[in-house]
Queue: 2 jobs
Job 1
Amino acid sequence: MSEVKKVATRQSYGEALVELGKEHENLVVLDADLAAATQTGKFRAVFPDRHIDCGIAECNMIGIAAGIATTGKVPFASTFAMFAAGRAFEQVRNSVGYPHLNVKIGATHAGISVGEDGATHQCNEDIALMRTIPGMTVINPSDDVEAKAAVRAAYEMDGPVYLRFGRLAVPVINDKPEYKFEVGKGVTLRDGRDVAIVATGLCVNSALEAADLLKAEGVDARVINIHTIKPIDAELIAKAAKECGRIVTVEEHSVIGGLGSAVCDVLCERQPAPVKKIGVQDVFGESGPAVKLLEKYRLDGKGVYEQVMEFVK
Amino acid sequence: MNKTELQKMAVEVRKGIVTGVHAAKAGHPGGSLSAADVFTYLYFEEMNIDPENPKDPGRDRFVLSKGHTAPGLYSVLAHRGYFPVEDLKTLRHVGSHLQGHPCIQHTPGIDMSSGSLGQGISAAVGMALSAKLSGDTYRVYTLLGDGEIQEGQVWEAAMFAGHRKLDNLCVIVDNNGLQIDGPVDQVCSPYPIDKKFEAFNFHVVSVDDGNDFDQLKAAFDEAKATKGMPTAIVMKTLKGKGVSYMENQVGWHGKAPNDEEYAIAMADLEKAGEALCQK
């Protein structure tokens, strides 16, 4: 088997900021003493004057970003998901969401794939928190190609955007000439009629691997990549439920309030269907190598495959 | 404006506060009245603004970090010509552009939504930083309550502003001494306020009477002349100033006058206005 190219989406974030920074003078980047980890250090190396380190003060950083946005510049405020969506939730809601300011939040180290740092830093709640804020766009890219496209799309649109990135290097799955990113549009990666697996972030790759294993068992699974959780592609999801009858959602996030809940919100109103929510159950994470944790929490290809089999049999 | 004209305007601003809160049957008169003079000074004397062009990129900015005193800000904006004074009677009514706390999307002249305490100062710091990044010359003012500075975010913002030497930023603390649960020094003392801002690398101007226009002018002139560091103006004021029964009363932090109390308040202010006309 040939070696699959792997890139952490936080690295894609840092690289995309540099590219966009070259094109747009009004782009500024903020960080809270995590420039190496969030990869905004790449931007700082090229544009030191447009990189603002706020120190370990995330609430203030979000407020500063809001103030900057009122003056017409486009700030990307960067820190770990735990602190961007968790600690600074109310600043994001009241200083960014309510005034609907053009602030982009680059949240890295989301989910249990943070790994060794353990539960305090593994944010499995950010999608739930961010999608409740009116007017907030929430994007969770699946790989390097999509992450870079998402950063560009976030810059190009007006209004607040929450971008979710991971620490772990993940396979590049969208490196195709026909790849196109559109905010709010899901992507059908594989057609199928027996069950539709709707996945987001690094779990999209797990879903594809699971679909291969399911095929061998005679289960024909559709795989849909929902990179934009809000606004969600309700059309595509309702169509999948209608044609496949059963839906499985897969996310590296709590099963409470994330993609699974967003999909159920769509289906209960438009196309009721049985749904299996795969994700982090109602528990905190723990320390360990990211890959081992994904295995333990059954978010890798094998874990998803097994859970889909239990659901469809 | 000369001092008497500013004083007369401040009386009109206070009438607008009382009228708005009375019509809303809710709101925060005490801290609006303590800050009525600084609102008046900023919008009629100090700031480079144009009500005809409220989004002018080169304008000075004001962020009401103590956002609950919106009735004071709305009143001064109305009297300065951003919207009709009549609108003040719609304060907090369903469908009104005058929300309970300032909203950048609703009201002309509002530079930032605020009201959740401790957040406005960070936005003001962001505006000041943005001006520095692009070489713009506008100044940024933000008004905080003395209770508000109990919020930790205020000091995150202060540390950053001092570190970045944002001399285009002027932080004003309305030290009226009272918060909802009682006197600030009994609830959780913020004192000494001046030494705290000094420790965060601010130039500090202490104002003995923040309801006196001469002292306000001296303080803002000093702030403007200060280079290489942000300025904090810590001004002692009288909560409820101008309405006899509200002055220095904790109970008038967040309560609306009834019809009878409204009449007394307006009579107090009429009298103050007439006294100024005798001058």
Job 2
Amino acid sequence: MSIPDSVPTTPDPVDLPDSGTARLHLQGISKRYGGVRAIKKADITVRPGTVHAIVGENGAGKSTLIKIISGAESADTGEIFFEGAPITLSSAIDAMAFGIQTVYQEPQLFAELTVSENIFIGREITSGTRVDWLAQNAKVIELLTMLGLPASYATKTVGSLSIAQQQQVSIAKALAGNAKILILDEPSAILTDSEIDVLFNIVRRLTKTGVSVIYISHRLDELFKLCQEVTVMRDGETLGTWPIQDLSIRRVIELMVGEALVEARTERTFPEGDPRLALEGLTLEGQFHDVNVSVRPGEVVGLYGLVGSGVAEIAEAVYGMRRPTGGRILLDGTVVEPRSPRAAQSLGIGMLPADRKAQGMFSFQPIAFNISIGHLSLLSKARTWIDRRQESIVARQMISRLSIKTPSERQPVAAMSGGNAQKVVLARETVERPPVLILAEPTHGVDVGAKDEIHRIVGELAHEGTAVLVVTSDVAEAIRICDRLYVIRAGTTTVEFGPDAKQADVLAAASGDDSDLSAHVREVS
Amino acid sequence: MTTTNATTIPPATPSSGRTRGGVARGLLPPAVTGQEWVLIGVLAILWVVLSLTTPAFASSGSIQPLLSAVAPIALMGVGMTMIIITGGIDISVAGVLMVTGVTSAKMLVDHDASLLVAVLVSVALGGLLGLVNGLLIAYGRVHAIIITFGTANLFQFVGRQIFASKTVNGIPSTLDVFGRGEAGRTLGVPHSFVLMAVVVAIAWWYLRHVQHGRHLFAIGGDPVAARLAGVNVERRVLMTYVLTGLLVGMAAVFIVASGTSTLDQSIGSGRELAVIAAVVIGGTSITGGRGSVLGTVFGALLVQTVASGVTQLGWPSELSDLFVGVAIAIAVGADLIRKWARERA
């Protein structure tokens, strides 16, 4: 389905309220990281007592804007006004002093301490040098009551609470710091539906007391339940702010995606035959369930899902990093149970990890080391010493094959750009040509040129017969390189798209809007 | 910051909490934790069994040396507990003990120093060496085990230079007030043990009720979050190492005082492990964020009781190492199981 001709015209954005009456007003913000312009121009105005959503695709500049508001990063240009007065924010502590509090996805709490102590740590109520436990506890109980949470939380240790409860404690902690603006960064990603309802109730109670909430979420259906105003970002710019009643999920997506460029796809013949990798009803309790996916040799299949949808965990389960609790993984029709990455590798499953700094790369080691590690038995003589000459030859072959830009294979990876480093890790995974290759976020944090290169390499690998499973949260990438695309929502495969999927449809499917999906999309049974 | 003035929170009414002994129930971990009760139970059983099997064990001639031996280990353990709560460790304790011990002994022998001077020099010197450790760890941002491994060797070298390849002979009886003899006891209790108990009581209060003491737990739990919460992480970490240095200086005086009139280079050797063993057996989590000085005292008592019991039963002394090793394994295992159970919950 193309974006229908009858797209209802989106009304113009509302006029920004006078910055004098606004709680927070940012004007002409820009931010550069090295050569990348994360934000070209951003303006936003947040009114007291409202829930203000910021939406945009990955890379649109949302997280950078949030970092600037919370003081974690400084803007290169532009001005920030707090209640009408210009301010500078050079650290998170600065922002907190103005009452700008951020609740991060990962609760910043101390597991061994009680909720009461966590809320007041760093700003204890004291009498003399002694911490006044009673006064703190009394305030915490009032705070919890105000948020509609049980007072019994106060004396529990944080480690004994669920993730959702820890998030609620984080909100209480932010409020104890005299919050005037509360930033919630993807708070619902880690929550179940009923937990989300609790969160929404808390947020609504807060706005009644005059607190402004900046709400970041990929789940667009939530905005319509909670927010009053929406600021849309695209390609590092704010497009404007709209009252929520002027928008629909589809219109928000259209604003986010813009005049989606129809990118030239390399014509490919789609393989047929039996799948090399098949997931049948794969389930990991609490993470994902009933996942059905098949990948044929020579096919590039995408798994697209929002943060928290379980998509990352599915890939990890196939690579033996997690143990599924139900369902089957089949390799060429045979049931396999990879129990560790090593076991997965010996079955012929390779994986390019998403977080290459943490999981995939030895930064201070040379390229050759990074490519050969994992294949040392292949490159060693009599399994005792490593054939350095052979290692260099293989490294040089891979460098030229993947067009890695470097003067020598002895160069450490730490000195390379993100895109080149990513290609090094990709090189390692393809030395032995695994029959199945899983790529998690293959171009995350990679510049545009290197992105094209990596997409080309993925195409070549598939052409040579590898079954490629791409896990990505970049919808443009998913559509561009995948022959078929599964959308994961709420921990399961919901919809399967063919090669001519449209960005807006995929986004709508992933964020919970199943209405008017076009004919060539079918529900996964 | 000593108060909060959040507009959204009405003023506190301190009388509204459920109270027991002035502090609302459950606000703090229990005064004596479960693991400490287990230790107390094990100690009680050991003492009863040892008293029944070797009648000499229950005599004052056996108990007093035991308390004298526990005092320096538990005293150093107080500082080490705080360090380990912040997620650090100090393995240079033996080196500091050597430098401060030999310096104070030489002051007594060569300069006829008074008790006060000897104690002050030893404690101040210990604090200085602790400051070296603390500055490197808090501001150098290198892991404590690497830093203190380096300084341990450095301090041992300095200590040997002061010894100048000779034992220190003819140490006068100036320090007897902290010694093993009659002069070192009041009502049968060694002065060193009393002093240690006072320090433990203060540290126990500090770690439970004082703002800065509570911050140590936050640092051990998550240093980044602690910094965001406004905790002066570097300063607090620095102070734990300085405090440990000061206490090691005091412990050195106890050790010199309870020895003979001769001091050789073996002073301090292996003590860092005895101290860490006491802390770990006492229930302080080696990964930081949790612990108590009371447990450390019981841990030190357990280690010494085992050593003393093995000797008095006439068993080979290696068995003492075995039992201590098993106790450490059980303590660390209990901590791991607790963490694992919590993550599963």
